[in-house]
Write a structure and sequence with these properties.
single chain; about 250 residues; alpha/beta; Spore Coat Polysaccharide Biosynthesis Protein SpsA, Chain A; 8-stranded mixed β-sheet; about 15% strand
């Protein structure tokens, strides 16, 4: 039976956090619908992430795993998850635990008003360098593509109709921006919702590495002839600051 909800999680060297992330994802999903899937792609982690996931799969109903033999990077992995999810609603969260699955409760009401909801990390608990990089990246998208999304690489809640037939071509971190830009070109609506962003407790992120930044900029420029803005209008994603609180019930995981 086709699931109502897919929670998708890219994981790379997340042994310290992945068990609690997956358990909370299943806990949150079960309280929304009995028809759900939690899909995790382990991108050839070098720690015990894969082993932890294999053990969880024996216990958690609805958990679906994909293991990469070689590391393909975040862009490839999240693209694979977007296109492979089966639910009518698709919700993405990271494997590092910085954005909890409970934020879905904050974003769900906006999904009744838009085709896609983007979480906005208004208070971002990242090193100053990462925050500067994110600001510059979102500003470049604003200038090149005449669209203001706010936090384009954050978590997303997406209706299935957005992903059907979506020809995502990039495999760098730009794939999130490509998804949003293609959706807007198709006349679909996007709303932003302020979400909570937690400090990283385990490991270090790879998004700030020079190679990844260069690959993302390359794709941003390469896709401009394909996704360049039409006409002179500037698109701005509406932002909802008054979303419902998203704290997990006290008997939940974590």
């Amino acid at each position: 039976m086709k699931p109502d909800l897919s929670i998708i999680i890219p994981a790379y060297n997340d042994a310290g956090s992945i068990e609690s992330v997956v358990r909370e994802a299943a806990y949150v999903a079960e309280r929304i619908t009995p028809r759900y899937e939690v899909v995790v792609v382990n991108d050839a982690s070098r720690d015990s992430t894969g082993e932890i996931l294999d053990k969880l799969a024996q216990e958690i109903r609805g958990l679906r795993l994909i293991h990469h033999d070689v590391n393909r990077g975040f862009g490839w992995t999240i693209r694979e998850l977007y296109l492979g999810a089966k639910g009518d609603l698709v919700f993405s969260i990271p494997g590092d635990g910085q954005i909890r699955a409970s934020q879905l409760h904050r974003m769900l009401p906006a999904a009744a008003l838009a085709d896609m909801v983007v979480g906005w990390r208004e208070i971002r608990n990242d090193p100053r360098r990462r925050k500067r990089q994110s600001y510059v990246y979102n500003f470049l998208i604003h200038v090149l593509y005449r669209v203001t999304i706010g936090d384009v690489n954050s978590v997303k809640l997406i209706h299935r109709r957005v992903l059907e037939g979506m020809p995502l071509r990039t495999t760098s971190a730009f794939v999130d921006a490509e998804l949003c830009l293609r959706a807007l070109r198709r006349g679909m609506t996007i709303r932003g919702v302020v979400i909570e962003h937690m400090p990283r407790q385990f490991g270090t992120g790879s998004g700030g590495k020079s190679r990844i930044i260069l690959e993302t900029i390359r794709d941003m420029l390469r896709m401009w002839p394909v996704l360049r803005p039409r006409g002179g209008a500037h698109s701005r994603v509406g932002l909802d600051r008054d979303a419902a609180p998203a704290v997990a019930p006290p008997d939940g995981p974590r």
